[in-house]
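During the reporting period the student researcher (J.K.) took over the structure-prediction task from the postdoctoral fellow and processed the backlog of single-chain submissions. One of the processed entries is reproduced below for the supervisory committee.
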Amino acid sequence: MPGPGNDGAAAAALVHGRIITPGTDHQLGTYGLFPPSAAQQCILTPATVPLTAKNAEPDLLWVGFAELCGGAAALADYRALADQHSTWVIDGVPDPEAVSAEMALGWIRFAEAVEALRERGRTLFLIGRSPLDWDRATVAWRGAHVPGTSDVPEAMARIARHLAVLMRVESAAEPVPEGISGS
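J.K. obtained the following structure tokens:
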């Protein structure tokens, strides 16, 4: 855990990332992000379990939410990956308000991954199809009363606090075709 003096420095690094919805090619390209090809996929073994990444370079880790949070990864794995990769792109982030027993552990693991990135002062880009609102998700999970999910509302609240520094890039419409200008 970072000490009180380290908290601001770690959180400041997250400011350089974004929460991007719905993740169109135009939105991603604006930030120099281009989805990896299938040939770039690789298996990493950061600490305890293997993890499939869409791309892994020293300056960039691109991984799907399901691969990152749906397996048996632990905080040690996320910390090891955060030590190795300065910028993370996590795509396929599901709607955090979609409450289900199946998603509970994934959200707890996601909170651990975010914590590891924050501790290490890494840059994070999140890509999801729907608006990613962890404040509203905290309320939804508290009111759901789904057995086995009692830790999820606190995990959602931590995620909301840590990611509040990230700017949002949201678009409900398709990108404007080239050559057409609205201004």
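The committee noted the following: Confidence is low (pLDDT under 50) at residues 1-12, 174-183.
J.K. will present the remaining backlog at the next meeting.
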